[in-house]
Amino acid sequence: MPGFAEPLMVKYLHEKGVREGLPVSGNFELTQRCNFNCKMCYVHDCANKKDALTAEEWLSIGQQAKDAGTVFLLLTGGEPLLREDFEEIYTGLVKMGFLVSINTNGSLLEGYMELFEKYPPVRINISLYGADNSTYKSFCGVPAFEKLLESIKKLKNMGITVKFNSLFTPENISDYKKIADISKELSIPLKPTTYSYPPVRLGKNTDDLRFTPEVAAEYISLIDEYYLDKEYYQKRVENLLSLPEGPKENKVRCRAGRAAFWITADGIMRPCGMMPSPDSKPLEVGFERAWQEIKALTEQIRLPEECLSCKYSGVCNVCAAMCMAETGDFSKKPEYICRMTKHLYTLAERSRCPNED
């Protein structure tokens, strides 16, 4: 299978949102709580035992977001299904007309099958971290794989769209082929990554838990080659080797703060959940004003000037969140990403079809 591709209509609406300054999509981080304890998590706060916002507050923000032009909502966490009032929040947002997706570790899905059958989400994104209970126990602290697999099969039988997100680290990389095989067997698209954001929002340093840039590049290349159709993989290789023209300005180029927003579990609006700043407070100033503030602050962000002249700029996925997470400054070049991108290019040269020039 070729991997996950965003629907053209979704892309079109976000492009229109960027042009017109509309908050087309949003992320509601309903809780920092989680029943897993993944070491690389950027948000999980075990000490936070009580959710800061009530269901009423989330629904109020939702109504204001709808009035401002939001179409897509992603409910995430922590583990959003841990909230005792998740059904109230979810049902209320669906009835408002949002196209709602959910990020979940999948371990609690069994208790929500009737709800999702009655009000199907647009998609459920499941973090798949291993291919057996042993890996889950080591990586997440909970042997949840077998239970998770049964829930996934039930969702598929109900006709609900599912996508796998897999973060690979030294602790679970040995399962990458098995995870890819599960994706293929169940016909569920897989979005793998070997890049771990430093969890700056929690003030932690986890460099010792992630790959070196070169090893991260080698593994994502191996995963893509194993998982993707040969023709599709070769097209990606050729696209990388073509070194397309990069951005002409060192401004934010993704949707964050331009057509998309993130609201943290404590009610702070930010351009992206991976950023510790800039921020605004929609519960105090109202959603529309908060969005205008975030949009203006995002416009002021400048990425590294030197990246514009880099020959890899057209294929490098460096973003504002990466710069801030890696260096503490939007305008500083993240060496980790530079090294990873350059090594991916070297690997692509090695894997080019032998019959091609």
Structural class: alpha/beta
Mean pLDDT: 93
Number of strands: 8
Beta-strand residue fraction: 5-15%
Oligomer: single chain
Q: Helicity, in percent?
A: 40-55%
Summed up, the helix count is 13
Radius of gyration: 20 Å
Quote the distance from N terminus to C terminus: 27 Å
Major β-sheet profile: 8 strands, mixed
Task: Spell the H/E element sequence.
Answer: HEHEHEHEHHEHEHHEEHHHH
Q: Going across the major beta sheet, what is the strand order?
A: 6-5-4-3-2-1-7-8
Low-confidence stretches: none
Shape: globular
Would you give an account of this structure?
The protein has 357 residues and is an alpha/beta fold. 41% of the residues lie in helices and 10% in strands. The chain has 13 helices and 8 strands. It has helices at residues 8-20, 55-68, 86-95, 113-118, 133-140, 145-157, 176-186, 213-227, 230-241, 282-285, 287-300, 320-327, 335-351, and strands spanning 25-29, 72-76, 99-104, 123-127, 162-167, 190-193, 260-263, 269-270. It has an 8-stranded mixed sheet with strand order 6-5-4-3-2-1-7-8. Helix 8 packs across helix 13 (335-351). The protein is globular and about 55 Å long. The relative contact order is 0.13.
